[in-house]
Amino acid sequence: MAVTDQIRPTTAAVLDTRPERKPRNLGQIIRWTLLFLGGVLMIMPIVYMISTSLKWPHEVYNVNLIPEEPTLENYTYVLEDGRFYMWFWNSIIIATITTVSNLFFDSLVGYTLCKFRFPGRQLVFIAILSTLMIPTEMLVIPWYLMSQSFGWLDSYWGIMFPGLMTAFGTFLMKQFFESVPDDFIEAARIDGLNELQIWWTVAMPLVKPALAALAIFVFLGNWTAFLWPLIVTNSVDMYTLPVGLSGFGDEADVAWELIMTGAAISTIPTLVVFLIFQRFIIRGVVMAGLKG
Amino acid sequence: MANLALKKLVKAYGQTEVLHGIDLEVADGEFVVFVGPSGCGKSTTLRMIAGLEEVTSGTIEIGGRVVNNLEPKERDIAMVFQNYAIYPHMSVRKNIAFGLRTSKMSRPDKEARIDEVAAILGMTDLLARKPSQLSGGQRQRVAIGRAMVRDPAVFLFDEPLSNLDAQLRTQMRLEIKKLHQRVGNTIVFVTHDQVEAMTMADRIVIMKDGHIQQVGTPDQVYHRPANTFVAQFIGAPSMNMLDGQLVDGRIRLAAGAPLEMSVARPPSGASVVLGVRPDDLAPTDAAPLIEGRVSVREPLGAETLIYVETASGEIVAKADGRNPPAVGEVVRLGADPANMHLFDRDTGMVLT
Predict the structure, then answer these.
(1) Interface test with B, best of A118, A183, A190, A204 (most B CBs within 10 A)
(2) Is-contact A178 A111, C-beta < 8 A?
(3) A30-67 pLDDT tens trace
(4) Is residue A273 part of a domain?
(5) How far is B85 from chain A (nearest CA, A)?
(6) CATH number for the domain running over B4-229
(7) Euclidean distance between CA atoms A226 and A244, whole angstroms
(8) Does residue A12 belong to any structural domain of this protein?
């Protein structure tokens, strides 16, 4: 009893000294509401995409979120259509080659701009950065004329060449290479490595998070690219997934349920990649100070 | 192993010259320490020897071969950096092996060499670890191991102990010295810490503003400083500097009796500076040099440092640790004239 008596006031004292729980202020409520609405706004197209992919054609223009008669028929149809695999394959090839190319060239240029001192270095960097300000819509005409002159129309090369190296990637990699101490590079130089070996064995392993982030940015960008592949390709065989899916259906009607089904399937690889590497994306964005 | 020679070495960045013609010969197997305040050019000199900075004019010779236009890897040198420069993505073994990447040794020979170096540095148990799992001292040892593994002609150390705490620094200082005694390579070591320089060097090169002030053994630079800068830079606490006038071969200070001193070189004028180390200055009644009032005491155990206000300004002396004078007490301080140094006040050069 005596012990309990001793404890009781102590507990009470602790409770008394707890900071009073502050009532949530209006600003916080507004902030959370806006974030919630933003979240809903982001998720709704995906929800509708999945919902539409489970609907019959006659139900497509019905805005109900839950299909009246859910069906997997669209998935069966798309997966049995040979064209889907062909476009999927085209997209895989283009996104993969472009990603590998960006990882190589962007990091090489970023490293050079970061770690070497040569006349005109700043000018080159500014010139590369300034291309970030030119919208794709302005570039497609010169790209098209170039493709036409070189005979690249309707080919993998034609689709890929504008994105094999990007200003954004170069900038991102340069920023990351800033964090690699010069001592590391000088030590390797003294140990007898040439500049390419230093880049590959010393600098590159130290910027793995940036490489992962860049890989995701580039892969997603090319996987979902629509405008340029649409312009540069003519034959159905060369379509990428987004271009091919947009033409699903026949002359009379656009088959939205099939487009949504194809889109839903094509989202799976990107979602997997994103879920695995999202922490690298966040670090990459923070380091580069840019939005993806 | 090889000797090293710097001949009229000049470094300029644009119009700004930072090294003004350095001449130095380092013998084969010698341990030379460059010491000086920040910006004196010691690290720049080291980086030029390594080939990391271009030479503006003059020559660098390693083993009798001019290396000015050789790449760092062709100079047969190894360097230990202040921040260790050990690669965080590689294990200790791989870090040490990195120095042998371009070597033509067979794989078993390389492995044996790595094990040998690890054993010398007491790191055999740490070979599988990553640098993040090591303490500061262990990381420094890895950096030294990577330099040692190639058995270079010249080792270059760029303030390698600066990032360690005081205790570890003392320990590593001793280890590097033992290592030098064991392997016997030529070492050029850069530091701003005069205690490191005094304790490790065969010879010390004291630099200031891109000029060498004095080159000598620790004993020489301490007991026979070439100028007031060296006199005050080496030794802690610094040498006391008392302004005086040289009249008829006698030195007159602000107060006290004139002092007889033999002058080897004639001064440019009558103004001189008398230098006395606190170690050589103690309370005495026999032939005192100067007197003043004790303002502060710093007990060090066996002895006590006393700060004394005199007519020539504040000076530091050493008193007995058991029975030091009290604060406020007037003391007379004296020194053996053989341990005093006389400098020209205008040029700063030694006259004795």
Answers:
(1) A190
(2) no
(3) 999 999 999 999 999 999 999 999 999 888 888 888 88
(4) yes
(5) 5
(6) 3.40.50.300
(7) 10
(8) no
